[in-house]
Amino acid sequence: MLADTLRELRGELRAQKLRTALSLLGIGWGTMALLLLLAFSFGFEELFAERQRGLGDGIAIAWPERTTMPARGFPSGRALVVHRDDLLAVQPSLRHCEALSAEFAGRERITLGGTVLQVPISGVEPVFATLRSLSPRPGGRFPSERDSALAARVVFLGDALARTLFPGQDPVGKTLSLRGRSFTVVGVLQSKLQDSDYGGQDKDRAWIPATTFLHCFGRRPISNFVYRGIDPTRPEVCTTELVAAMAARLQFDPADRAALSVWDTTEQQRMMFYIFLGFHLMLAIGGAFTLLVGGLGVGHLMQLMVRRRIGEIGLKLAVGAAPARIRGEWLLQALVLVVAGAGGGALLALLAIVAVRASPFTEAVGRPFVPLPVAAATASLLAIVAFVAGYLPARRAAAMDPVVALRGGR
Asked: d(Cα 346, Cα 335) in Å, to the nearest integer?
């Protein structure tokens, strides 16, 4: 049946070249529009997520502020002073926090030869690299637990800062002067995308062990601390636990959330997830309507084909062809037309996606791609379009009276 159907369809399409071309163009355009819209939408979402992860994946940053509630004999308005020892003391009691690091921040003078720069410097714990997505280039490393234990004079440089200080050189193993003290460069940040920061982009910063920071620059309170919960879907559990532990140690009310100013980056990530979900749905609906309009063209073409072949259909019915076979032939023809048009549209979409992924525009629009569920949903929609476009003409052909059909439908 397939061979006969295709042969009949080819002969019919030769007589309907313009209508066929327009119908195939409609299906192809709808398929291409649907795939491209969603491919670029998902690519941009992935780019945005990568930029968000540049600050850290699922982290929260807390800054000590002033209390706004009296607690345990202390008045409100008290400045909260947090030392590294306070964080080390509460850390063993935290059951829902995966990692925690103090951060001492400041701007210090780096000298190398005739180059003198004022650079943001942070003293941090070794786990800070994992929290803040600070991956070193091959051949380098972030300050380790041993460096921290020894208060070693080692420094990890942002990639842009390293290029400024050591143009055309590998900085690892070289020394520089930090406030008159010699430091060894142990690693350089691997280039990354980053759309959020506090105190400056990571590419322009430098990091040393927290113990080294205190040893070189004197004992001082922490500037802030960074942490991440064990359960990424419930970050508030870790925050509540941490605030309660800090409140017990520093004598402030745990309900006084103004005492610790917390920036939970997971809230922004959740918000952007729902924004992009709505964006994907809007584009999918628009692309689906474009595809359905193309399906109307195929349905109209099938109606004309039935009208032109009434005599042939009547002859088949007269010699004993079952109505189900007639319906199957016309549904198959509709499916062939939709597959041909959709195949052309999908091919053009694929070529466009490959071209953009190989271009320098990926930094602005991301790397477009079509997720497997989207491809499956598009194929299912095309199958529905083919069925709807062919069903009414097929039913009309199968329901004809053979005698009336042989008379040309009169």
From this structure: 16
